[in-house]
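[step 3/7] fold_predict: job queued, chain A
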Amino acid sequence: MKKILAIAFALFCATGMIFAEDTDDYLKQQELIANNKTITIVPKDQHQDGIKTAKVQLEYTPSTHEVHIYYDCLAVSYDQGAAMNTILECLKDFQDQNMQYESYRYMRKDSVKYYNDERKLKWARYHSWVEFKPRTLDDSISDYIRQQQNKAN
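[step 4/7] structure written:
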């Protein structure tokens, strides 16, 4: 009898710790939303397609569901098609990581600006501004259940 109670108590504590971690992540995200802060994200997989000087950076504002995404590379090796493909892949990765978003729309036309750095090298910056559409509650619940099942497997 004591063994059964000890095992049940251990399972209860383990379950509590798992949900506590999820709650902490949720509370941190809600705090960022309440403070209207912008989060700068540098993706691990930047989908550079052989351009060694290319860098991608996202600026995510949780309260407005907006993302400003920048693609920087040397102006000599800049290719607009490669920049567009890289940004699309990074936005797809961002959407896969943040399952609360269903789709996105562009807030304005993409732009390209050229600038010189402190070493007098000419760089190109491709900028895209998108707004993500949050999922409905029914979609969020079914995705959360699916995600928990994937974690268990």
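[step 5/7] annotate
The two ends are 31 Å apart (CA to CA).
The longest strand covers residues 122-134.
exit 0
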